[in-house]
Write a structure and sequence with these properties.
Chain B: This is BMP family ABC transporter substrate-binding protein. The complex is a heterodimer of chains A (about 300) and B (about 350). By secondary structure, chain A is an all-alpha fold. Chain A is built from 13 helices and two strands, in the order H-H-H-H-E-H-E-H-H-H-H-H-H-H-H. In chain A, helix 1 runs antiparallel to helix 9, helix 3 packs antiparallel against helix 9 and helix 10 crosses helix 11. The radius of gyration of chain A is 19 Å and the shape is globular. Chain B is about 40% helix and about 20% strand. Chain B is globular. The chains are: A mainly alpha (about 300), B alpha/beta (about 350). At the A-B interface, helix 1, helix 11 and helix 12 of A face strand 8, helix 7 and helix 8 of B.
Chain lengths: ~300, ~350
Amino acid sequence: MGIIEAILLTVITAATPLVLASLGELVSERAGVLNLGVEGMMVMGAVLAFAVTQATGSPYIGVLAGIACGALFSLLFGFLTLTLVANQVATGLALTILGLGISGQIGEPYVGMSGIKLQPIAIPLLSDIPFFGPLFFKQDIIFYLSIALVFGVNWFLFRSRAGLKVRAIGDSHASAHALGIHVIRTRYLAVMFGGACAGLAGAQLSLVYTPQWVENMSAGRGWIALALVVFASWRPWRLLAGGYLFGAVSISQLHAQALGIGIPSQFLSALPYIATVVVLILISHNRRMTLINTPASLGKPFVPDR
Amino acid sequence: MKKIILALATSAAVLGFAAAASAQDKTKICFIYVGSKTDGGWTQAHDIGRQALQDHFGDKIETPFLENVPEGPDAERAIERMARSGCALVFTTSFGFMDATVKVAAKFPDVKFEHATGFKSAENVATYNARFYEGRYIQGLIAAKISEKGVAGYIASFPIPEVVMGINSFVHGAQSINPDFKVKVIWANTWFDPGKEADAAKALIDQGVDILTQHTDTTAPMQVASERGIKAFGQASDMIAAGPNTQLTAIVDTWGAYYIKRTQAVLDGTWKSEQVWDGLKDGILTMAPYTNMPDDVKKLAEEAEAKIRSGELHPFTGPIKKQDGSDWLADGAVSDDGTLLGMNFYIAGVDDQLPK
């Protein structure tokens, strides 16, 4: 295995949870709901996926548990912000803190336990292609899912009727409501999709990335995912590119250090974030494009008239 | 109705008094943790020490603790809250709590404070630390014997003296066996991020190291090493579960004995501010069993450990030059503790640039 191939493999592992978590958040925000609880949902997905894998011996059931846990946990956010019309920012932050706390409690017996790794599935023929085969066609199910979901979400949002409704709600919930679209119901589904994706991202952390459970193991990835959504200006393809760019920068800085390139390591560690800021500046330079892409009713509560 | 409320109020008051009274019987020994007590590394080691302390004194003491206290201004509030709640002795268990501890201690002259791994003290602030570099020297010896390529990977956290000292000691130990031994260092700039630590481990292995050591807190690097079939050293806790066929040994922090000793001093009224820096001989750190290595290497490690314990061997014994070529220790000279505790330079032979 060449060094380039080895680096790219690591990049894929590092980028996948970011892509998944931010993709879920993208859908939620497209429907106009800002859920800052990504970190909490992710870490809940991670602990449940790990615990269920330990209990059943099957990481696949673990993955399902992670997804279900993320979706259920996001329902709590949905109930508070959509039904009780609580402030989305505050509720999202609370969800993160709650998730970190509860996951620590649930995970206590699992600390230090060696996990079961989700094994890669080689796709016949394709995985034999030199270089690209092992990279893209000999991966675990979560990687395949992440790519499929980017395709799927892109198609759904911009090519399907239901996706058009989601975007309509995100842009003006009052108008969408007047047109007879179920604003609250759709938002519930979008929030749950976001939760499920974050849960899946968490499962990737505790079953693929580092097959173990340690408290707070998401270590801020949920926040990066949130930034990626803005970075991608709410577009799935850009989000995929952004996730991989972020992964690539953070991995290559480690390699640069090991090679002994004389750049201060603090600067190298900050590189991924500097890259994010630069891209954000470039994007926001064009005000009109930003306005067109940003869901106009993002974060605003909606109370249907009865 | 009024009667019920009155009864409730009285019983509540009585309960309150009872609680207060029982609390006063017990001496409060408090702990501030930077991480969670189940982090599997640094903080867990301190919490095991706290439990040993509680078991030792039983009903005589209480050992409340605060977890996940971030370093910085929040730490000051947390420590002050502890001091105000009637603690007799407060252990602040992370380097980053240093300034906050000294600041709060000035406001509470009657409360005793002990700060781990720092270098600032006061009338009522003692410092305590373990000579982890002794363990790292032994790891260096083992690495030089085991590694076929003669290159080790070192996952470092932050460029503070504690970590720099560890790298120097490891390299010095390894080069005493194989003068051409190299070490590749990656600064993760975090104590705790399993994903990043695993990525760093992968990067090092991809670049050809065949032995790994870490100064970060999770078992992720051990797991990667195990997956890639190379050997590694554990950190802070025995990490053998994460790599039964991988771990050579680990530096295990065992704070319990120290906590018991200092609490006894508080109970006896003999507590004094000291700068304690204990080593292998005092049992504040121990080496996990030497595993996954040939018998002759194991013997070498055990002998070195015995010599360090007896004081016959000091890991930093000259001749040692600094990385820039200037002299540091003459032949046979031993480093003083002050230089080690403020170590901000690499010794000759370290193939990395120290971040400033």
